[in-house]
Amino acid sequence: MNENTIKNFSTQLIQSVENKEFVKCTLGKITSNEKDLQNIYIKAVELKNNLMLSFTFRYERRDEVKNFNLTEANDFMLQKLGNEILSADLYTIRKNYFLKFNKKRIAQLIEQKATFSQITNLQHNNIKKRYISTENNIYLHRLEVIGNNGQIIKNKEDKFKQINKFVEIIDSLIKEISFENEIKIIDMGSGKGYLTFAVYDYLKNNLGLNVKVKGIETQEKLVKICNSIAKDCKFDNLSFEQSNISNFHETDIDILISLHACDTATDDTLYQGIKSNARLIISSPCCHKQIRQQMNSSKKLMQINKFGILLERQAEIVTDAIRAHLLELQAYKTNIFEFISAEYTGKNLLIVATKTTTEIKEAEIKLKIEELKNLFGIEYHYLEKLLEENANDQTWRNLNPVCHVH
Ligand SMILES: C[S@@+](CC[C@H](N)C(=O)[O-])C[C@H]1O[C@@H](n2cnc3c(N)ncnc32)[C@H](O)[C@@H]1O
Predict the structure, then answer these.
(1) Enclosing H/E stretch for 44
(2) What is the pTM of this model?
(3) Is the CB of 259 within 6 Å of ligand 1?
(4) Which of 46, 50, 127, 211 is deepest in the core (most CB within 10 A)?
(5) Is residue 64 part of a domain?
(6) How far is the CA of 207 from the centre of ligand 1 (A)?
(7) What is the Cα–Cα distance from 91 to 200, expressed in whole angstroms?
(8) What is the pLDDT of residue 289?
(9) Could you tell me the distance, in angstroms and rounded to a whole number, from the CA of residue 178 to the centre of ligand 1?
(10) Where are the beta strands (DSSP E) in 167-225?
(11) Do residues 172 and 223 both lie within one domain?
């Protein structure tokens, strides 16, 4: 009986798309193992002249979009409804359909008068919101990301995609935090400042937020150029400072960002964020040498690690996994995901850590870290060492009153 009800719902969904009557569909009450999956929003799209359904999987701190053709969408519904998904609301211009499951998981399909009288225009594949406008954009021109005609210069397209995506992620995360005063943002290892300028411009000029943004960079020449461009753009609250990340001493950072800070510079970055009790840390790591050197000697994994590329990949995974655990140990809810397709950069992982007030299961997390280190033959992780060496530094630990549960 359940089977027929679910089939009926799925048929209504597919037919409404085929008949151009579909408005939207939301799947909720998710009981799958994916703990932070909150709901799934479905809209109709036209991709290369094919009608498809675009599923947005809404996780606690990110969205993941998957496009399904109608057969795949139907299969998804038949497989998941009643098992991992216990509520589905379908809106068409003919009727609304609400599929519910009671405690015994018996399905009920409720049909109601349509709420909507018009379908939404089908979104096409090529319509994509850009967070950074190239129009009359002085800094992009001076940084040689766009040419005189305003077009993105060929070898800068990947970088432009990366910073756009980074800004999009900051945009969604910043909206979840309420800041009372000026928001102080530091970009560690800012290089030529592509990301730093874009973040400032978007938050200040598009969102109208009261932000102060600073790029930290060792190379004096880059710092000088970036400061001069910031001045020409009249970006008054944007500046660049020549400093090594590890020597940076400000402790009132609200948001800390970094894009491809090399090797342990990412650890220095995360450490500065933790030390500052930053509300948000967003960092895309780069070249994981520190752990790799130690893993090489790990006998247990010799059969894998004798292949250079597998050793490299494993070093990345282990380094970032330990980083995530160390952040959790400091009361940061941490997530790691691919922020952009690998076609734009191989270094496409993003660590996103949000400060929480939840209790820390300190002993449990420490055990996980030890187990990981033992498994991979790691003597020390650079971030762990930084945290341990400075554990008694009360100037920052006092900033950070969190509850420890053993
Ligand atoms: C790969 S580049 C990335 C630059 C920029 N974030 C971007 O994505 O375009 C890394 C930058 O970090 C800087 N850097 C590396 N280690 C650093 C450190 N310890 N302190 C400050 N800057 C550092 C380098 O000079 C370089 O400009």
Answers:
(1) strand 37-47
(2) 0.70
(3) yes
(4) 211
(5) yes
(6) 27
(7) 40
(8) 82
(9) 29
(10) 183-188, 211-217
(11) yes
